[in-house]
Amino acid sequence: MSSLVLHEYAASGNCYKIRLTAAHLGIPLERRDYDIVQGETRTPEFLATVNANGRIPVLQDGDQFLPESNAACFYLADGSALIPADRFARADMLRWMFWEQYNHEPNIATLRFWHGWIGEANLTDLQRATLPGKFAAGEAALALIDQRLAAAPFLVGDALTLADITLYAYTHVATDAGFDLGAYPAVETWLNRVGSQPGHIAITD
After folding, report:
1. Side-chain half-sphere of 159: how many Cα atoms within 13 Å?
2. 72 near 79, Cβ under 8 Å?
3. Which of 13, 23, 30, 154 is most open to solvent, judged by the fewest CB atoms within 10 Å of its CB?
4. What is the per-residue burial (b if ≥16 Cβ within 10 Å, else e) of 179-202?
5. 71-124 tens-digit pLDDT
């Protein structure tokens, strides 16, 4: 890997998970921040040079640009202890990472953004109508990982993997979205466990 650049919005959990992965691996990142509220990822220059999909994070390695946060985490961690050597465990890690983007992030991260950046009074009627469903789906996601973590210290095996890093990113700030993490004791214990790992950094670092 050449010099790496992370195109990001620092408060985003999807961007944070890449920084957290890099921190655990001791990989330096140059950070370039964009204000998504002001539409800085929708400019013609950004769309032409960084990501035609108009979204961040994007990990840049030389003249190669890799969108999608979990793909970027995998790229950084490939060959490291954050990716299990066992074939089934590696696939199980990917299962949690896919699930995070499909069941967890669209609900918890979206509600966090709406609460913290948009404000319920400024939501569209369509967005407001989806609030109960997104909250219920977020609670179901937290309950599922709580059930898993009641039986194991980490999501895959007995050591930290990318599954934990990618799910930690938005789970640890779920209270910003209105969720009561006290209702999920195994999740709270796991959050403390992940946060105490060597190399850990906070989302605000």
Report:
1. 10
2. no
3. 30
4. bebeebebbbebbeebeebeeeee
5. 999 999 999 999 999 999 999 999 999 999 999 999 999 999 999 999 989 999
